[in-house]
Design brief:
Blueprint: E1 2-5, E2 8-17, E3 27-34, H1 43-57, E4 63-69, H2 73-81, E5 85-96, E6 99-109
Parallel strand pairs: 3-4
Antiparallel strand pairs: 1-2, 2-3, 4-6, 5-6
Length: 111
Protein backbone atom coordinates (compact mmCIF):
# COMPACT_ATOMS: atom_id res chain seq x y z
CA UNK A 1 0.00 0.00 0.00
CA UNK A 2 1.15 3.55 -0.58
CA UNK A 3 0.25 6.97 0.77
CA UNK A 4 0.44 9.76 -1.78
CA UNK A 5 0.35 13.56 -1.58
CA UNK A 6 0.12 15.58 -4.80
CA UNK A 7 1.45 12.66 -6.82
CA UNK A 8 4.42 12.05 -4.51
CA UNK A 9 4.67 8.86 -2.45
CA UNK A 10 4.89 9.81 1.22
CA UNK A 11 4.76 6.33 2.68
CA UNK A 12 4.41 2.66 1.94
CA UNK A 13 3.54 -0.48 3.86
CA UNK A 14 3.34 -4.14 3.05
CA UNK A 15 2.82 -7.65 4.32
CA UNK A 16 5.33 -10.34 3.46
CA UNK A 17 4.58 -14.05 3.90
CA UNK A 18 6.72 -16.04 6.29
CA UNK A 19 7.27 -19.32 4.53
CA UNK A 20 4.83 -21.01 2.22
CA UNK A 21 3.95 -24.22 4.04
CA UNK A 22 0.84 -25.11 5.99
CA UNK A 23 2.63 -24.48 9.29
CA UNK A 24 3.31 -20.79 8.63
CA UNK A 25 0.75 -19.54 6.10
CA UNK A 26 -1.23 -17.87 8.92
CA UNK A 27 1.72 -15.55 9.59
CA UNK A 28 3.23 -12.52 7.82
CA UNK A 29 5.91 -9.91 8.45
CA UNK A 30 4.95 -6.23 8.30
CA UNK A 31 7.09 -3.40 6.97
CA UNK A 32 6.46 0.34 6.74
CA UNK A 33 8.28 3.50 5.66
CA UNK A 34 7.06 7.09 6.03
CA UNK A 35 8.76 10.12 4.50
CA UNK A 36 10.38 12.29 7.21
CA UNK A 37 8.42 15.37 6.09
CA UNK A 38 5.11 13.75 7.06
CA UNK A 39 6.08 11.65 10.08
CA UNK A 40 3.73 12.38 12.97
CA UNK A 41 0.96 13.54 10.60
CA UNK A 42 -1.12 10.34 10.57
CA UNK A 43 0.34 8.70 7.47
CA UNK A 44 1.76 5.73 9.38
CA UNK A 45 -1.45 5.37 11.37
CA UNK A 46 -3.54 5.26 8.19
CA UNK A 47 -1.21 2.78 6.49
CA UNK A 48 -1.06 0.50 9.52
CA UNK A 49 -4.84 0.63 9.93
CA UNK A 50 -5.28 -0.41 6.30
CA UNK A 51 -2.73 -3.21 6.66
CA UNK A 52 -4.42 -4.61 9.79
CA UNK A 53 -7.82 -4.48 8.06
CA UNK A 54 -6.40 -6.24 5.02
CA UNK A 55 -4.63 -8.88 7.15
CA UNK A 56 -7.76 -9.63 9.19
CA UNK A 57 -10.54 -9.18 6.65
CA UNK A 58 -9.06 -10.34 3.38
CA UNK A 59 -6.04 -12.53 4.06
CA UNK A 60 -7.25 -14.27 7.19
CA UNK A 61 -3.87 -13.90 8.87
CA UNK A 62 -3.70 -14.90 12.52
CA UNK A 63 -0.35 -13.26 13.27
CA UNK A 64 1.48 -10.21 11.92
CA UNK A 65 4.99 -9.53 13.20
CA UNK A 66 7.57 -6.78 12.86
CA UNK A 67 10.94 -5.58 14.10
CA UNK A 68 11.52 -2.04 15.35
CA UNK A 69 14.70 -0.39 16.61
CA UNK A 70 14.67 -0.08 20.40
CA UNK A 71 15.07 3.71 20.26
CA UNK A 72 12.14 4.28 17.88
CA UNK A 73 9.58 5.17 20.53
CA UNK A 74 7.20 6.91 18.12
CA UNK A 75 6.87 3.79 15.95
CA UNK A 76 6.54 1.49 18.96
CA UNK A 77 3.64 3.55 20.32
CA UNK A 78 1.94 3.44 16.90
CA UNK A 79 2.31 -0.34 16.72
CA UNK A 80 0.97 -0.77 20.26
CA UNK A 81 -2.04 1.40 19.39
CA UNK A 82 -2.87 -1.13 16.66
CA UNK A 83 -2.59 -4.15 18.95
CA UNK A 84 1.07 -5.15 18.58
CA UNK A 85 2.83 -6.33 21.72
CA UNK A 86 6.48 -6.67 22.60
CA UNK A 87 7.76 -10.25 22.34
CA UNK A 88 11.48 -9.83 22.80
CA UNK A 89 14.73 -8.02 22.11
CA UNK A 90 17.31 -9.00 19.52
CA UNK A 91 20.80 -7.66 20.11
CA UNK A 92 23.02 -6.10 17.44
CA UNK A 93 20.53 -6.69 14.61
CA UNK A 94 21.66 -3.82 12.37
CA UNK A 95 24.49 -1.38 11.79
CA UNK A 96 23.45 2.27 11.97
CA UNK A 97 25.96 5.11 11.58
CA UNK A 98 28.84 2.79 12.47
CA UNK A 99 27.22 1.31 15.58
CA UNK A 100 25.30 -1.90 16.11
CA UNK A 101 21.73 -1.37 17.31
CA UNK A 102 19.19 -3.66 18.93
CA UNK A 103 15.61 -4.20 17.83
CA UNK A 104 12.39 -5.31 19.45
CA UNK A 105 10.29 -8.13 18.02
CA UNK A 106 6.60 -7.25 18.16
CA UNK A 107 3.52 -9.12 16.96
CA UNK A 108 -0.23 -8.76 16.71
CA UNK A 109 -2.48 -11.78 17.01
CA UNK A 110 -5.85 -11.57 15.30
CA UNK A 111 -8.53 -10.77 17.88
Amino acid sequence: MVAELDGVIMGSAGLFPIGTGARTRHNAMFGIAVHPDVQGCGVGDALLGAIVTHADGWLGLQRVELDVFVDNDRARVLYERHGFVLEGRARMTAMRRGTYVDSFAMARLRP
